[in-house]
Amino acid sequence: QVQLVESGGGLVQPGGSLRLSCAASGRTFSNYAMGWFRQAPGKEREFAAAVSGSGTVTYYADSVKGRFTISRDNAKNTVYLQMNNLKPEDTAVYYCAADRGPYHLGRARASGSYDYWGQGTQVTVSS
Questions:
Q1: Which residues on adjacent β-strands are paired with residue 73?
Q2: Residues 6+ apart with CB under 8 A from 70
Q3: Which of 27, 35, 65, 71 has its CB 3.0 to 4.6 Å from that of 60, i.e. a possible disulfide?
Q4: pLDDT at residue 89 above 80?
Q5: Can you give 26-84 as a three-state secondary structure string?
Q6: pLDDT tens sequence across 8-54
Q7: Alpha carbons 114 and 107: distance in angstroms, whole number
Q8: For the chain, what is the mean pLDDT?
Q9: 18 Cβ contact partners less than 8 Å away, ≥ 6 residues apart
Q10: Rounded CA separation 98/92 (Å)
Q11: Which residues contact 123 (CB under 8 A, 6 or more apart)?
């Protein structure tokens, strides 16, 4: 069982930055690939970024590539999402998720691959 708790969301102006954190319980954090998804009002949840258990392989949605960076600190059981040059269309609830299965792009992008989810943190980009 893994419990995930996100933090770091808030209100930011366009062009600004935020860093989201997701703290995980348990002693086998490095066994899980981690992903960040987001859901805007009236839209389906969408993939944003993912990182392998070792932290060496990352994937990004085209919409965030070059602006967002996913990373993890396995000693702290935490995964991060650094978000720069934020745009109003980045406004959403952001969720972190953990997947104990094999890590590859097709699996990382699919929300159904993930076994555990956090409660979400709101990110609002507005002037």
A1: 78
A2: 34, 36, 49, 50, 51, 58, 60, 79, 80, 81, 82
A3: 65
A4: yes
A5: CCCHHHCEEEEEEECCCCCCEEEEEECCCCCCEEECCCCCCCEEEEEECCCCEEEEEEC
A6: 999 999 999 999 999 999 779 999 999 999 999 999 999 999 999 99
A7: 9
A8: 96
A9: 8, 9, 10, 12, 83, 86, 123
A10: 19
A11: 9, 10, 12, 18, 20, 38, 83, 86, 90, 91, 92, 93, 94
Cβ neighbours of 83 (radius 10 Å): 26
Nearest to 61, CA basis, from 41, 88, 81? 81
CA distance 4 to 96: 7
- What pLDDT score was predicted for residue 56? 95
Looking at residue 83, its pLDDT comes to 98
